Amino acid sequence: MNHRQSNRLVTRRDWLQRAGGGLGLLGLAALMADEGLLASPASGAMSGNAGSDPMIPRAPHFSPRAKSVIWLFINGGPSHVDTWEYKPGLEKYDGQELKGMDPETGFFKNAVGPLMKSPFQFSPRGQCGKMVSSIFPHLGEHVDKMAFIHSGFTTSNNHSPALFMMNCGLAKMGLPCVGSWVTYGLGSESRDLPAFVVMSDPKGRGLPKGNASNWSAGFLPGVFQGTYLQPTGDAIANLKRPPSMSDPDQRAQLDFIAAMNRDHQARATAEAELTARIASFELAYRMQSSAPEALDVESEPEHIRKLYGFDDPRCADVERQCLMARRMVERGVRFVQIYSGVMENE
Fold first, then answer.
1. DSSP result, 108-125
2. 294, 151 in Cβ contact below 8 A?
3. Residue 276 pLDDT more than 70?
4. How many CA atoms lie within 13 A of 106 on its CB side?
């Protein structure tokens, strides 16, 4: 540009022509930021920068085959020796007393009998020859694709501590669960849905023992705790915008609340939960349009719904939740946990 051009007055047409490219780049930058493409590997929760998005996707230490988790937690399920863990010793010693066994152990005072073999037949299945109970005539066909861990145990026979042990690694509440650890370490691919989702028994029989402590973030920032989906009615409570409020009004309200929270956080830096609160408000706003579509299992083709058991009353407990879980992980949700069943007695 020569001196004469630089001194020429800029007309409105010139300004729009020159600024148009810049506005396009701003839009591109916003889209890339939403997809996490502008984030450095150190950003997010692991960097310790409170101003960064804690849910930015992060690469794991090793290249994985799995990108998400769907955990079916069979609460109060059948014994391991009747399902997947074959114990030939129980057949050998069936009916015999176990020496050194306290007959008043646990909550079964004066009701502890001799050793008992499984009433179900076991047979080798698949190329690996895994011994599988007759309870699973169809699931047993897939043992070559499954991994079995038979070394797990807990020192408590109480239901609540046992659930904490399974979810958090110790038989006491107050610690982060595995879903929180996974999202803390890896972030989430979804910008419009929770990273960690929990569903309970769809028959409405109640939450598992320990309730929300089973999907708590513990000492991690609250943004990593599980989002609970209700089994009946609206899956996410209070998600719908009030009829009297327009989208611009709600956006202005959220901006005002966020500004107030950030101002308070600047004066009370120790209150880390404010960051999670601000993030939860923004996520809920985005979920108003994305969550209904993700949870709409009725939009699935009929043959897919049949595969999940929609035409079988015996599958009525979990088929809808399993299909919802699949739809969510397809949309970037990192961790979904489904509780099936409930323990009535402590």
1. -TT---S----SS-EEEE
2. no
3. no
4. 11
